[in-house]
User: Fold this.
Amino acid sequence: MTAEIFVFAGGLGLLAIGAEALVRGASRLALSFGISPLVVGLTVVAFGTSAPEIAVAVDASLEGNPSLAIGNVIGSNIANILLILGLSAMIAPLLVAEQIVRQEVPVMIAASALLVGIALDGDISRLEAGMLLLLSVAYTGFLAIQARKASARMRAEMEADLPKDAGWDRHWSIQLLLVGGGLAMLVLGADWLVQSAVVFARALGVSDLVIGLTVVAIGTSMPEIATSLMAALRGQRDIAVGNVVGSNLFNILACLGAAGVVSPVGLLVPEAARSFDLWVMLAVAFVCLPVFLTAGEIRRWEGALLLGYYAAYTAYLILSAQHHEMLPMFSGVMLLFVLPLTGLTLTASFVRHTVRKKTAANRD
Assistant:
């Protein structure tokens, strides 16, 4: 057990150092190549922090366990929005770039809806997986074309946001090393953290099923968690939000695409995922629109709301897996009271924001 404590501490240390290196290198890289931190967050950072999900999905497919690949992607996407954005917004309200609201969130919703559509028949064929992989390449190419050279004004703004004591990392080669090294430490740190956490949970008598639903699902999202939290702390909020939205897109398009292509029979989608988890993932993607549109930021109370929903989702999974007698009452409370109340709150907040915006425009 002593060894596991050191492994756990080492994993946390690697996550912290790796996230710091990745955010520092990514923000500098954006400046060096004259592109916005948002695009870097949507591509380089998002794809890199999705590495654990890609590895798990491909490995699960090759070992004949496609359900693990599906479950890992769905669980990670739900955790990315509810857990990671919730935690990041609790640290500091996250300003949401107009491009995220106008372009990336609708693309994420469309990708989530596409996944639900092709998975409802019980499997994702190799042809469908290949289509997802091609869409991943097309999306990345589109972002690269869209990322024109920053204007002098934007470059000055980006320069002002960066640390003043960072002279040693001004060359792009050092920045690439920071990004690559940061990603490697994030993946290794997440692996150490999951291994040690599983040992701790078993020592406390927690079942393997509950461990899989909680520790492993959150563990593969640890790079995203560490990166987004560090980005929020450093004021690189475009990277924090872009990382989450971009990771969700890569999880659906690249992870499941690669996993389905390498599997000789495609990916079988469990009935439980088709009847519940896929729809939760789609609903969570839709939730981003009213939250992001309200004042163009994710405020602390909205972050707390997202965290509350993640706790409720995890509680539902545990109660359902154990066929607990409290499950019907828990589900009833969520469906009849909590969800409608949340919908009304978000709608009222959005309407109030719209009225204020129109009133300000009329005064001008």
Q: What stands out?
A: The radius of gyration is 21 Å. Residues 166 and 232 are 19 Å apart (CA to CA). Residues 150-154 have pLDDT under 50 and may be disordered.
